[in-house]
Please model this.
Amino acid sequence: MDSQKPRARIEAAPALPHPYAGLTAGFTTRHDKAALVVPHFESLLDVSLVTVDFDTDSLGTFSGEVPRKGSALDMALTKARVGAEFSVDSLGIGSEGTIGPSHQLPLLMANAEVLAFVDLKRGVSVSEHTISHSIRTISLTVEPHAEYRSTLAAGGFPDHGVIVKPADGETTPIFKGLHTFAEVDSAVRVCAVASADGKARIESDFRANHCPSRRPTISEAGHRLAFRLRSCCPHCLAPGWGLVSHVRGVPCSLCGENVDVPAREILGCTACGEQQIAAKPIRVSIDPSRCPLCNP
Ligand SMILES: [Zn+2]
Ligand SMILES: [Zn+2]
Model:
């Protein structure tokens, strides 16, 4: 998987025992993500997770019947707060995925997974994310009786599920979580009749329990989040010490113009607001190709 390389961190010495050892966090998910995150929280923090059965689809769906309100991070934080409210220890986790064309590699699809954590008692609110280009996707418009099986198989079907809906943009009828050709054929017939153009849309069902190629990316984000929570604030000892922002501004190696890119990490605590600038710079100069004066 081509997720980002781990970042170098200044790790504050964890308080011993860790403040979360033996506690339980609520994980707000309906799509079977807990199994991907539990091992990291158990092994790195001794934290157990309980699944909070909240209707996360009411906050927005991949298939578009419910538009997402706010950014992926906003959604993950909202779900984490719901999880914390259901947790006896006031700890919560929420997850949100985004799938779309890659900014860096426009021919590829990118899958970003953000995992957020909140601690309502201490005021901790942190997140970690992972990006992968290993996501499998299916997206095609078909007429009934067309040959689409090979295209579906190329996109990872039947391990990867699909949704079927009318091709003219109507949001009903809609069939989700389909994993057999017989189910797809039948859904295509119904949706084509309901569509003004007589065609049906077949698209990936990106919910985590129907999309195996998302699962390693969610697991990696879970590892990063649990790892971050091991680090405690050097000032107030709250867990979650880590990257909060960047010092920006790096000189161009040719003309010396200050270019607005990250220069150093700022590590901080979301509970007490303590911040420290990392000693090691991310970069000390920038290539003229990224300089607005040398390469306008
Ligand atoms: Zn602190
Ligand atoms: Zn320059």
The chain is about 20% helix and 30% strand.
